[in-house]
Design a protein that fits this description.
Strand content: over 45%
Radius of gyration: 17 Å
Structural class: mainly beta
CATH architecture: Beta Barrel
Distance between the termini: 8 Å
Protein name: Outer membrane protein beta-barrel domain-containing protein
Strand order of the largest sheet: 1-2-3-4-5-6-7-8
Shape: elongated
Order of helices and strands: HEEEEEEEE
Number of domains: 1
């Protein structure tokens, strides 16, 4: 959800006025469901929630957004928690906003208790319908070093605001 959006001019005087570009600038906070798919045959599926916050800064034709992610998931009676700083790079093209995202931070698992370095990498696509509404999806690879946790996380995204 976009809480703040500016309309700053580029150095050459041209302004970005697409809904996708405007919606990715400024502060964003989102909470979404996540499905975890197994990385091995017969592995368990899981699910949970991810809370993301970021601040989008115009950088030429892209929007660079430093931020953070907190994730909590359940798989086979185990809780997985992630906390990390992230970086998202979005390349808005008309109503489309493809992006890549990555992060490194702390990860922990219960039953038995294990922890390690959490690593996330992936991307997604948002489709903006005007300056108020957008839908999309994100897919990321997530792992925690020194544990068995390795998964592809898939989640929908719905955005209101502008």
């Amino acid at each position: 959800m976009a809480f703040l959006a500016s309309s700053s001019a580029r150095a050459d005087g041209e302004q970005h006025d697409s809904a996708a570009f405007d919606a990715n600038r400024g502060f964003h906070l989102g909470l979404g469901p996540t499905i975890l798919t197994p990385m091995r045959d017969g592995g368990p599926y899981g699910g949970g929630l991810a809370l993301d916050g970021r601040y989008g800064i115009e950088a030429g034709p892209t929007v660079i957004a430093p931020g953070g992610r907190l994730g909590g998931y359940f798989i086979s009676s185990r809780f997985i928690g992630l906390a990390m700083p992230t970086l998202r790079i979005t390349l808005p093209v008309g109503p489309l906003a493809p992006f890549v995202v990555g992060g490194i931070g702390y990860g922990g698992i219960t039953n038995p208790g294990e922890n390690g370095l959490a690593v996330l990498g992936g991307g997604g696509l948002m489709i903006h319908f005007g300056h108020i509404f957008a839908i999309g999806a994100e897919a990321t690879y997530q792992t925690i070093t020194n544990t068995e946790f390795k998964s592809i996380a898939i989640g929908p995204a719905i955005s209101f605001g502008g």
